[in-house]
Amino acid sequence: MNSANKRMRIAIGGVSHETSSFAVTPTTIADFESGFGLYRGQEIIDRFQGANICAGGFIDGAKKHGFEVVPLLWTFAYPAGLIVRADYEKLKAEFLDRLKNDEQANGPIDGVLLDLHGAMVVEGISDGDGDFITAVREIMGPDRPVVVTQDLHGNHTQLRVEQANAIIGFDTYPHIDMAERGREAADILVATIHGEIRPVMALRQIPMFWSTPCQVTAHAPMNEVIARVHELEQRDDIVSVTVATGFPWADVPDVGASVIVVANESESLASATANELGDWIWDNRQRWFHPPVSVRSAIQDGQAAAKYPIILADHADNTGGGAPGDSTEVLRTFLELGLRDAVILYIVDADVAEAAHAIGVGRILTIDVGGKSDSRQGTPIKMRAEVMAISDGDFTYDGPMYAGLTGNMGRSAWIKQDGVSVVVVSAHEQPLGPAFARTLGIDCARMKYIAVKSAAHFRASFEPISGSIFNVDAEAIHTHEYSRLTYQNRKRPVFPVEIPPGS
Asked: What's the pTM?
């Protein structure tokens, strides 16, 4: 370890949110505090050291390169509606104050590693991530590097590319490479500070909404995209390549897919490489399109294949993308078909959870379930269900995503009517794996039908036990029939809406 490394001080943190413009519930500071949490200073290191999350990768980078970590503020709210402007400004101001105050007390910060999302929208600010990066840049000035990690589902803008030195997006969906991307960001930041590279970026936006079933990076066709990314990264003076599939439920001018290339010194190389990959993605756009599938047709196809468990990804009500989590079409269909050994993970309905706690395990609960947040989520389902188990919601993630972290679903219950089980929860979090269900006594591997309010993240843990998997477009606010979404701010035609499949 040389003396330069001993003196290097790197600030870390960020404000992260995937914002749905079509969700009616606003996001507040309280949601950040009750989501993945709001951590300050040493709390960030205590929470994320060794965890599979970008901040954990930053900390790993400090161990590798010998720099001093200056933890500022890190917070993540579960996806929901627009962030209240005053609350966002408060979080941003605290982050910036901590950065300035540490410099005044302890000397200059050599660089900043930001853990952001890429689809953050604030009341009156369509590009929350760009605004945050710009604010950090104003303090750091033009000569001190700022490197940013972002989710695969970012809606990237030119502002971000202009304000950051490098943007590093995830390579996997489900996102099992977060710590790895954090370590990569730390490598790039340190190399920049040492003058080993001078990163420059180019952005290529692609007017396309990428179908969710075609984004799973372990399978074709998405694995071919990532293979091309990695091939490009082997070229001389290409530092990093990011493909972002976008987040269609953010009604912002730059919504859609994109490519970001970080090159060493050469803007022309970065631009040419981004355009090369962007052109290939656009030319193959039909391959990234999958028409929506109904609930009943998916069940029929699964039964015909007779490969169990049949897993239905209720992606239009994915709480991991900001949907309310209480749509009822899947539940109604399971009951109407009289399915046995069927479970739904999860329906967000705090009233039902509280009622189950009040009546107790083994009792019969007659109550309306789901369909209470928004008329677009379907109507409530009258159930006469036995309370099988109750929980205060604590559990530990044991799959590839968020490994080493704990979670809490709030007051929760397992209720069952005939052969259909429902896990009702109070927190808006998607089922990343069977860990929480297991705490209630549910063995998902023994089920024949599993519905998850998730788009793809569930695959990291559920795919090994699955017989067949279908993404279904049940009635809910995050429909994947994008023509049904009412955009006000989208500034360009996109495939497959105004530019139809087959064109």
From this structure: 0.93
